[in-house]
Amino acid sequence: HSHKRGQLVYATAGVLVLSTHDATYVVPPQRAVWVPSGTVHEARTRGRVSLRTLYLDDTVCASLPRHCMTIEVSALLRELIVEATRIPIEYDYDSRDGRVMSLIVDEIRQARTAPLHVPMPRHPQLLKVCQAILKDPAQSDVLDDWAVAAGMCRRTFTRLFRRETGVTFATWRQNVRLMEAMSRLANGQSVTAVACDVGYSSPSAFTAMFRRAFGVPPTQYCADTTH
Question: What Å distances lie between residue 18 and 5, 7, 115, 193, CA to CA?
């Protein structure tokens, strides 16, 4: 489905997974996803989820990107979102309500983006491969196996995959595992269980990968989602 207005979806608890034709986004607690007006998307939830959603008319949010993005929610933006839920649908742009909404747009525009999405290819055979990995990120099939599954030689597969997604196959699969791990951690699973479930040989290998991606170990990152 799509919306006539831009949509900011803020997860206060649980995990939201949002998919468009171009990418799949994971939204753990205390993060948000920006969805421009007219963007066809599908939303799924994991665990018990609590969400706050704002709809912004294009006349208000013309300065925001025309692509989806997952963002870190600052303390200020969090309080502004809560305040916005008390604002009527029809409000005076020159009033206090209008200034609150304008500040929300400013905060979205300046928010730090979170690396919690993977681009999706348009090529039908590559898309089937990506969908299979998204369903089971722990699969251990090597690149050559996936090339065969796509009916291509290794060289053609790697070249076409990078052209379609902008990243290598190895990076793409690692990011899928990161997103799956984030989803499971946010729902309370232990680091040890998550490491095994997303295909890592040990918790230490998983933690090292997570730290390289986010700059902090998984235990610290997940603790931040409760603040």
Answer: 17, 12, 14, 24
